[in-house]
Each structure stands twice: as C-alpha cells, then as structure tokens.
Amino acid sequence: MKTLYFRSVFPAAPQLGPQLMRWANTALQPFESFLGRASDAAKERQVRCRVSWEPVRNLSTLTLEAQDTRIRILRPPPRWLVTNWDDGVAFDVEKPLMVVNRDATVLVARAERSPRGVWIEPAQPLDAADEIFWCGRRCVVAAASDDEPPRSFNTLAGRDIPVRAAFVSEGDDAWMGVLEGTVADSELLADGVRVGVTAVPGLEGVRRLFDAEGRVFELTGGVLKVEDHPAEGLLRSDTGVRFAWRAAGTRDRGGRWVQLVAPKLRGDDFEDPCAAFCDEDVKEVWTEPKHRLDAVIKVRRVDRERYQILLERLPPAGATLHLPLNERDLRLQKRAARQLTHAPLPHHRSLLRLCEDPAQARWPAVTPQPVARWACLTDETLSGTEEQRAFVAMALGSPDFALLEGPPGSGKSTAICELVHQLVASGQRVLLCA
Predict the structure, then answer these.
(1) Measured at the alpha carbon of residue 306, what is the angle toward residues 255 and 57, in degrees to the nearest 5?
(2) How far lies 405's CA from each of 207, 379, 388, 390, 434, in Å?
(3) Phi and psi at residue 6, in whole multiples of 5°?
(4) pLDDT per residue over 160-200, tens digit each?
(5) Which is the most buried residue in 76, 216, 253, 386, by most CB within 10 A?
(6) In whole angstroms, what is the distance from residue 141 CA to residue 85 CA?
(7) Is 385 helix (H, G, I), strand (E, B) or coil?
(8) SS3 helix, strand, coil % of the chain, rounded to 5?
C-alpha cells in the first residue's frame, strides 16, 4: 500500500515511487524520533513540576490623620494649696512664707491662683504641721499629692480642652495622656496650674487600631495596609489617639494572585518548578495531573520575580497546581510526518521533494523575474539592497519555494514587503503569515 501511495504522487514517473519512499523514510525518521522524545520530555516535566499555592493578600494602604494629641508634661515640684485665700485678696511672691512654729522663712518660687485657692511652690520643703503666715495672713495649707495626675486642662485664655485618655505616670518625672484636637508644644493650665506641654507624634507607640465594630488592624512600620476597609468613622489606637482614615489610592494589585510554593528540591533536581509555571507560554494551570475541564484555570498575568501568577479564579483549597500537558502540536506533527512517510497524497508532491537525496535530486531551474519598478527597495546606495533585490527576483520566478535566511536587522522584512508589493501588482493573491 505504501508503494501505491508514493507512485500516485508522481503518476507520470511511477518508477520514482519506491525510491522516493526510501528517501522520505530516511529524511523523516530523525524528526519522528525527535517528536517522540519531545513528547516524553513534556510528560516528565508535567509530573515533575507541581507546586502548592497560597493566596496573595490584596492590600490597600490607608492614610491616617490624628484627631487627638498625645502630650507629655513634667511633674511639677512639690506644691501646697492655700485653701483659705479669698478671690479678691492679692498676694506677692516676693514675700517669703513665715513658718512660725520653726521660726523660719521659706521663699516662694511660684504661685498660681486656682478655683480652689492659691497654689504655692515653696523653695524649701514644708511640713503638714507647719503654722504659716504669708503676706500678713494666716494660711491654711494642704499638700498636693505627687501621685495624682491632672484631670482638667485649659488654654491660658481659659478654653477647656477635653481629656481623651487619662494621664498616667511616665517614669518618675512626667505624665502622659491624650487631649482632644491638635495641641502644639506650649503651656497649658493643668488643674489650674501652668505646665509646659510637649506634643508626641500621633503614631508614636501605636501598634493596633480598632474600628467602630471592634475589628483590630495591625500597624506595620507606621503604615496601615488592609484587605478590607474599616467600618465608617474614626479608628481608635491602643494609645488612645483617634484617627480619621482614607484610602491612599488603588489597591496594590487587583485580581486573584497566588503565591507559588515549591516543594523542597532534591539533589538531582535541575529546574525550579515555580520558574516553570512563570514561563510566558504557560497560559493555564491544572488542579489535576490529567486534563479535565473543571480542573483548568486560565493564567492572566505572571510575576516572575515574586513567583506569583494571576488566575481567573482561585484553585480549591489544598489543591496542587500542575503544569498543563499540551501534546496536541506534537501529535499533529507526528501525524503529518507519518502520513508523508506512509501515505502521501498527490498534493504533498512538493513537500516530498524536500526529502530527496540532494546528490540525485533534479530541481527545476529558476529564472529570476525582472522587476520594472521597485516599491520598497528603492535606495541602491544602502548596504544589502542588491542582495534583497536578487532574492525578490528569484522568488518571483520560483514555482514552489523560496527561502530567505539572515540575522536580525539584515533586511528580511523589507525584502518580504517588496515581494508582496510585486505579487499584488501582478494581480496575485497573497496570504502573509507571521
């Protein structure tokens, strides 16, 4: 049967059939062997390249704006409150305290009027049993507690500043707390006493934030990145400062990105399976080792640096990803080579002639066809134009094949454009494949 097929290809010279059959078998056998090895290599690669995966978090960065101010104030020196000082009575800090029971005088470093009386800051310690006269008046004094942080704050102009988080000790010489609104480094009245205030940056010391629904958001390096936006309203930090928030822009990357997690490589492994999944020619992944429609997931984009791929949908939880096994092209080439070897048809005549022994082949002579007017190859001074024109003339005179070979940038595309122009100008139809 094979001989009959080959004799039908050249009906005018049937004696060429057996000889051409031998030539075709000799020429195509190495190619068929190569296709077999390529198929085996594809199967082996598909078995070897399988990876686990985990979803990539699609984070959005939030900008935070503090609505309150953490402040640090120094503990004042020991103070005493003169509780029986009338509002309309003046005092003079230049005059010392007369400690009658000790027959001593104590200078006054500072004095402040308050709703409860007059706060005095003596330059030397006092005792609760001391009998004190000041500015000609007998004073009833009470010691202030050093362990009691201030509870109320006012500006020097008298405006009340609400306390958002109670003041607590910070070391032995300061208190730390949160006041509502923006407060700069300045002086305020704390429980009626003038104190120096140092503002602390709003995010300093903040590790967690809480929204109105009680959800917790971790702050990393002073930046808040979230998958789901917080509930509407202000965020409250673990330091007591409240923050308004807004999305700083679009999310890092949209879509269903997955991180490829490769198994530990063995000593004889030479290919990182994650890298194999990131090849540009990988258009899909499988969740099963064999092809099944419901196990095929399209690959939309690839991030080779991170070994991440963007999929049309997430794989099932716990599924292993497999490289697709595409043998279709190899099968088609095998079938075509097998038909040329065993059962060629008359229209395969030109292909079979490529299998002829060059030493015995009798190819038809080709007469270059002259070109009256060049369309693209018009500049004779350019290097290579003469060779390009020679190819076009040879191709126009060829009855079957004309092959053009050359490195990138040598002018192959320009020569092909000229050939198309000439063919169309002569009324022929052109199918251009690239």
Answers:
(1) 40
(2) 66, 21, 11, 13, 15
(3) -70, -35
(4) 999 999 888 887 788 899 999 999 998 999 888 788 899 99
(5) 76
(6) 10
(7) helix
(8) 25, 30, 50
Classify residue 348 by its DSSP letter: G
Give dist(CA 149, CA 168) in Å, integer: 7
The tokens describing 374, both together, are: 């060049």
CB atoms within 10 A of CB 387: 13
The CA-based dihedral angle spanning residues 183, 186, 191, 192, taken in that order and rounded to the nearest 10 degrees = -130
Residue holding tokens 């269903």?
A: 256
Extract long-range pairs of 186-190: CB within 8 Å, 24+ residues apart.
187/156, 188/153, 188/154, 188/155, 188/156, 188/161, 189/153, 189/154, 189/155, 189/156, 190/73, 190/150, 190/152, 190/153
Q: Are 9 and 350 in contact (CB under 8 A)?
A: no
- Tokens matching residue 68: 């309150």
Q: 358 — phi, psi (to 5°)?
A: -55, -30
Cross-strand partners of 108: 122
Give me 394's structure tokens: 């040879």
299-333 residues labelled b (16+ CB within 10 A) or e (exposed): beebeeeebbbbbeeebeeebebbbebeeeebeeb
Encoded tokens for 380? 């004779």
Nearest to 104 by CA among 112, 96, 115: 96
- d(C-alpha 286, C-alpha 297), whole Å: 6
Phi and psi of 76, rounded to 5°?
Answer: -70, 160
User: Tokens 């082949």 sit at which residue?
Assistant: 361
The confidence band for 251, taking pLDDT boundaries of 50, 70 and 90, is: low
Query: 66 forms bridges with which residues in the sheet?
Result: 243
Residue 147: predicted pLDDT: 60
What whole-number distance in Å separates Cα of residue 178 and Cα of residue 196?
15
What is the phi-psi region of residue 35: left when phi exceeds 0, alpha when psi lies from -120 to 50, beta otherwise?
A: alpha
In whole angstroms, how far apart are CA 22 and each of 27, 260, 346, 355, 396? 9, 51, 17, 9, 32
Residue indicated by tokens 């007369």: 98
CA 389 to the chain's CA centroid: 52
pLDDT of residue 323: 84
Query: What percentage of residues in the chain have a pLDDT greater than 70?
Result: 96
Q: Is the pTM above the cut of 0.70?
A: no
